[in-house]
Amino acid sequence: MAHIQFAPFSSVVDPGFWHKLTEKKLNEYGLDDSERLIHGFFSDGNAPGMPPQLNLDYLAFNSQFNPPSQSFPAYGILHNTNTLESFKEKDKKLLLANAGEELWKDFQSGVFLQEPEKLCRFLLLTFADLKKYHFYYWFAFPALKFPERSTLTEEPAMLENIYSPEKLTSLISAYHSFQTDRPNYATCFLIQEDGDNFTFYEFAQLDVLISKRNVIVGVCDPSSLDSYPGWPVRNLISFLTYKYTGVVKSIKVLCVRNRTHDGVKHFGKSVLLTVDIPALNKNIADVPECVGWEKNERQKLGPRMVNLSNTMDPVRLAESAVDLNLKLMRWRLLPDLQLEKIASTKCLILGSGTLGCNVARLLMSWGIRHITMVDNSKVSFSNPVRQTLFTFEHCLEGGQPKAQAAASSLRTIFPGMKSEGKTLSIPMPGHAIIESLVEQTRAEVKELEELIQSHDAVFLLMDTRESRWLPTLICASKKKIVINAALGFDTFLVLRHGVKTGKADGSMPSSMLDKIAGSLLGCYFCNDVVAPGNSTTDRTLDQQCTVTRPGISMVASALAVELLISILQHPLRTDAPAEVNSYDSSLLAESDCSLGIVPHQIRGFLSRYQQILPATQAFHMCTACSAKVIENYEEHGFEFLLRAFNEPGYLEELTGLTAMQTATQDAEVWDLSDDEEPESMEATT
Amino acid sequence: MAAGSISRDEFQSLVKKFVDISNKIDDKWHLVTASSSTYMLKKMLATTVCCNRLENISNQMVSDMEIESLEDVSCMPDVSESKTLTYEYHVVYNESYAVPVLYFNIFTNDGRLLPLDEVWSQCPTHYQTHLKDNKWSTLTQQEHPLLGRPFLQLHPCHTADFMAQVISKSSQKINYLACWLSTVGPMVGLNIPSDYMCKD
């Protein structure tokens, strides 16, 4: 008769187990690598084709372990090593031999009579690399080679082939009334067969009942394979052989397989084995060989490694949580919102003061990941209370460079940020460059050009008007989105620069507009009839520094960021036209963009809690964005810029402003000035 | 309670009834109590059409440690390891939306969660188009409110609206949980037998 072959367990580790192991290692085990008792469980209800599995979940570490309902416990020992080296060096043969010795001792003591479920054991060797969230592990399901092979005295029989349906029903109901009376389902039990009736007994009655002809030893079997009983049956048969060698000739073992079909349980696929109990020398002093290391996915005896950084690394978890918040906005309110367009926008923030810090924070809230902060100063003691990316610590030891400090704060707040800080001075018209500094200035201009080139949107948030000239010019040449924000004491201006994409230029006749095409909109300098010059020389300290109502920066920053988002979401992007009339009727009209209109300028007056939305056209003599200036810059590059920095009046001369000023002086243009013109606004941070 | 939402007490009694029916038909749902909240859980096993993303990366260290198989005549011959996935479903009450939320994970035998895009591809194809434009079934990875680990979640933001519609259209009392689960569940591989649909 053929010998029995058993289907080994496959391990199934619930993600919760790894989470719990991590928690234990960090909070409890520390460097203590002594062995720990853990638990697993298996089911006898596997569908056909499913391998027998031993499950470990987050409850594995509980000292009082209750397997899930209708599951059976397995008793394990965890060896969690502190290093990969010790995981490697651990003597696997010895570990398994020790487990075999324990089993053998328990055979001898007869403890299994009372606790037959302890025949189902495992070892788990682990190393948790908690920097990378890599887990190395190797299971063993110890089984004794005792006897070397077990043979059957009869062909194995499937119950549905030998029992009538009535008899099977009777078996099932006897089984259930036995199991449900106990605190936990029993893995092993005794069944007395009497015609079509069955009586169940505790396994502890084994000695009394074993010699009776109509007694079957029942064991819950995780295997679903017709010809191979599962691993728990193996140790049970070893134990029975050990115990009754020479006493009985054979023992009937029922491998219970408890399947459910359409809500109905049936035992028909359970297998009845008649196991030959050979006469063996009982006084064996040597412990039988122990086997049972699990094979890995390549069918080799070896460990496995699982990388769980995706679901355990807090940085990645923060990223997905942040994304979800934004997605909620889309699901709940704005189905058209294109978050990818926002997330992929690279932003350059020139000026890392109150405006720069607030703008960066808000960009981060909108899911923008790539932010470069630029500034040329250090964090001073007055900064942190207004400049929301700095703390007192940043001011110590002379102060950290603002751009770098702001960029690193962004990453502290959210590690998913790709933020960088650059300390850079922006050359300005009217601030003459002395001979020795020409090369340095050339390098600074080059760096600024490269920065602008490598970003999609540029925020002009510096504290002087003239420092905005060079980036305005470069952005106009490179056709980048520019959002400009400037503050007065209780006033602010937020505006987008027209981007001369060449689109829509002719489509809207300028004479009859209530809208101005995006490409025709003015820049920060378009409304000025003087070129930017040195605005700081004659000012007192309070005029040079931040003297604004603190809320102004928050309001202006918020509007600046929302203006960028509106541009990005508008189907025409920078070509989105701006309304000239800020009448309710025109503003309430159906917009092309789910976020609403895309204004050109927002001017706010806190003393009146009022905002207006003017729109103005680009000025053909503008010192920063007119065709003449751009052409000269593109043709002569740095040499042109150097003249603009050094020669007062050069830009006015070039653009024709000088000529216009001469002409208009005679016409006394101020008599015609508009009462509605907002008051002059000095740029401060 | 706003239309379509339920209170925590209602939820508690609904899950109890649900699990009672499950026990009768052996549908494997059971109750779990964590942080003094009760939720309903079901785990099931399925074989998978193997996709490459499920393969674990091979590792030099691991292959260095492999040893020769020992002779063991009582062990069944090698079969190629069958790829199984465990599907785990949790129905948890959400206080702020006052509705039940379906959390679930699909994981490999070594404990790796299937990434979201892979879960999509496991969805029955006829549901995939459906999912794309169905707002109330929006799927994301979120922290489980009671276990603190990442789970996929069908976001609850549209559940109440949806259930309010169902309730208003139905002439008789419906089993809230069964009705909701049988609508959202099949998209993520969870089937609800009609036994639950009987009146309360």
What brief labels describe this structure?
heterodimer, A: 685 residues, alpha/beta, eight-stranded mixed β-sheet, six-stranded mixed β-sheet, 21 helices, 26 strands, elongated, B: 200 residues, alpha+beta, Yope Regulator, Chain: A, six-stranded antiparallel β-sheet, 6 helices, 6 strands, 29% helix
Please give a structural write-up:
Chain A: It holds the Pfam family ThiF. Chain A: Belongs to the ATG7 family. The complex is a heterodimer of chains A (685) and B (200). With 685 residues, chain A is of the alpha/beta class. In chain A, the strands form six sheets. An eight-stranded mixed β-sheet of chain A has the order 19-18-17-20-21-22-25-26, sandwiched between helices. In chain A, strands 2, 4, 5, 6, 15 and 16 form a six-stranded mixed β-sheet that branches. The radius of gyration of chain A is 40 Å and the shape is elongated. Chain B is an alpha+beta fold. Chain B has a single domain, classed as 2-Layer Sandwich (Yope Regulator, Chain: A). Helices cover 29% and strands 23% of the residues of chain B. Chain B is built from six helices and six strands, in the order αββαββααββαα. Chain B has helices at residues 8-25, 60-64, 116-122, 125-132, 159-169, 176-184; strands at residues 30-34, 37-47, 84-94, 99-107, 139-143, 150-154. Chain B has a six-stranded antiparallel β-sheet, covered by helices on one side. Chain B is elongated and about 65 Å long. The two termini of chain B are 20 Å apart. At the A-B interface, strand 1, helix 1, strand 6, strand 16 and helix 9 of A face strand 2, helix 2, strand 3 and strand 5 of B.
CATH architecture of chain B: 2-Layer Sandwich
Overall radius of gyration of chain A: 40 Å
Shape of chain B: elongated
Uncertain stretches of chain B: none
- How many structural domains in the coordinates of chain B? 1
Tell me the Rg of chain B in angstroms: 20 Å
Q: Helical proportion of chain B?
A: 25-40%
Please describe the biggest sheet of chain B, giving its number of strands, its sense, and whether it closes into a barrel: 6 strands, antiparallel
Class inferred from helices and paired strands of chain B? alpha+beta
Strand order, biggest sheet of chain B?
Answer: 1-2-3-4-6-5
What's the pLDDT, averaged over the residues of chain B? 82
For the secondary structure, the number of strands of chain B is 6
Low-confidence parts of chain A:
540-544, 671-685
Helix content of chain A: 25-40%
Number of helices of chain B: 6
Main-sheet strand order of chain A equals 19-18-17-20-21-22-25-26
Question: What's the assembly state of these chains?
Answer: heterodimer
Indicate the proportion of strand residues of chain B.
15-25%
**Greatest interface:** A-B, 71 and 58 residues
Net shape of chain A: elongated
| N-C termini distance of chain B | 20 Å
